[in-house]
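Subject: Interface between my chains keeps coming out wrong

I've been trying for a while to get a sensible model of this assembly. When I model each chain on its own everything looks fine, but I need the whole thing in one frame so I can look at the contacts. Pasting all components below, labels as-is. Any help appreciated, I'm running out of ideas.
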Amino acid sequence: DAKTTQPPSMDCAEGRAANLPCNHSTISGNEYVYWYRQIHSQGPQYIIHGLKNNETNEMASLIITEDRKSSTLILPHATLRDTAVYYCIVRVGDFGNEKLTFGTGTRLTIIP
Amino acid sequence: DTGVSQNPRHKITKRGQNVTFRCDPISEHNRLYWYRQTLGQGPEFLTYFQNEAQLEKSRLLSDRFSAERPKGSFSTLEIQRTEQGDSAMYLCASSFTKNSVYNEQFFGPGTRLTVL
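Reply #2:
Try treating it as a single job with all components included. I did that and got this:
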């Protein structure tokens, strides 16, 4: 699975859009980008995933660059409850083995 | 449905003792995963089951570790002869996999193990 690089920490003002970047320059054609987050003292929570098209759901939007070497997770209107560690994961999307390989993630702090 | 549950939530033990953790997945989820997470790190995969079959084990899972899912429902993770390096959060996750469609993993709250 391709390695990902994320900034260790970020701050965002409450009510603003939080944009979390992820670099995955060695991604291959059959690898998907997944985002999970982990709120303090809880298990990780799935947010969104995508292959090459931009994706949106009720939680967030995922923007993947055309060359697929990087992506951005967007939380459109951040709230204090969005304070968490956000993990960008790249893995083969064969869905036969859903083992997740987490890095150290980005610690996002929402500022009141 | 209350999600994935894990028991106990906290366990303190002395080095050399055996410990067992339990995970109850979301009902009808056919896949169950165990991960371990140490302070400041992301979760690390340990093993996973499809129904009662253990399909993959990480190299992290030494011979002191054993996991079972006897009836394809709940699972147990046992650590024998615990060492201080086993101190970590042990996370369980479950998912329903069918027809090669990605289904998210739902994680439990974890069991925090402290080995003295």
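Reply #3:
Confirming on my end. Chain B touches chain A through 29 residues (CB under 8 Å).
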